[in-house]
Amino acid sequence: MRAVVVHGAGDLRVDEVADPTPGPGEVVVAMEWGGICGSDLAYWKHGRSGTATLQHPMVLGHEVAGRIISLGDGVRGLEVGQPVTFQPAQLVGDGIMPERLAGRTNLYPQVRYFGSAAFDPHTDGGFSELRAVRAAQVRPLPDSVSTRRGALAEPLAVALHAVGRAPALAGRTVLVNGAGPIGSLVVAAAKHAGAAHVIAADLAPASLDVARAMGADSTVDLTAESLPDDVELVFEASGAPSAVGAVLRATAKGGTVVQVGNLPGTAAEVTLGDLVTRELTWIGSYRFSEEVDDAILALADGLDVDPLMTHTFDLADAGEALRVAADRSSGSSKVMLRLGAPATA
């Protein structure tokens, strides 16, 4: 089978690799769709993502969906032909959490994740024609959710987790700073949670267009305007340290900022005075726990992710797909890889 393999910084190949067979408790899935994420781009451009550094070639991709084609011994409740997406996280060890962190599996100290070099050997992702997956990580898709949309259950889960970290949104005005794929999904998740008015802010007109299509009631072009004043609930989705000071200034006194954009792990200059003088609550939001199940339900309930998917490439053109995804001037938001989907998917 073919797979999208990163061999090192700047070295991406579509390789021929062995077809998988299902072990006990596993299924093999014919992969159909994948969405390119920032971590995929980081491994390709830099040979690392965060603190995880490539030691060996690795298959990319954790935003994926497909159809089961075979079942391993002991698998129950799943069927050949069933459309599925995945919980890409697997806890390493006994899975026991401190009582204060009960249910917050995203904070478990050791997690294998599709397409991650955090462990050696690395955990291959799903940008391949086939993949063997633990049945416990498989999430069936309802008939109303295509595998193309289902591939975005993972990033939508990130957005839903961020919304769940905030006070109740129903009837409130919300600001989302950063309208990239995650920011635009936060827009959609906020509207789905009942926010009355969602403002999206970004530097790129194309990103603001996507945010509007995803449900933003108004937008702010940061090349010409400043963030609005006194918004009680703000999601910082840009991950840019230089944006943090303005975001804290835009937050109403006593308000809440949810940091969903991934800030760098190295020293950065940030203006934080308003955090104290305005008595703000600044909350971190990391990946998700089991919100992938909530994401599937939201998709089935009509949450529309189609406007996010701006570009589509075949698996053979994965290199070009990553280049487009990395180029802000391309107008891309979520770039999709057709891993083996039928033309009607």
Q: Describe it for me?
A:
This protein is α/β, with parallel strands linked by helices and 345 residues long. The protein folds into two domains: 2-152 and 305-338, Quinone Oxidoreductase, Chain A, domain 1, CATH 3.90.180; 159-284, NAD(P)-binding Rossmann-like Domain (Rossmann fold). The chain is built from nine helices and 20 strands. It has helices at residues 38-46, 147-150, 153-165, 181-192, 205-213, 241-250, 273-277, 291-300, 318-326; strands spanning 2-8, 11-16, 26-35, 48-49, 52-53, 58-59, 63-71, 83-86, 89-91, 111-113, 130-134, 138-140, 173-177, 197-202, 218-221, 231-236, 251-259, 281-284, 309-314, 334-338. The strands form five sheets. Strands 3, 7, 8, 11, 12, 19 and 20 form a seven-stranded mixed beta sheet that branches. The chain has a six-stranded parallel beta sheet with strand order 15-14-13-16-17-18, sandwiched between helices. Strand 17 (251-259), helix 7 and strand 18 form a beta-alpha-beta unit. The chain starts with a strand and ends in a 7-residue tail after the last strand.
Brief characterization of the structure:
By secondary structure, the protein is an alpha/beta fold. It has helices at 38-46, 147-150, 153-165, 181-192, 205-213, 241-250, 273-277, 291-300, 318-326; strands at residues 2-8, 11-16, 26-35, 48-49, 52-53, 58-59, 63-71, 83-86, 89-91, 111-113, 130-134, 138-140, 173-177, 197-202, 218-221, 231-236, 251-259, 281-284, 309-314, 334-338.
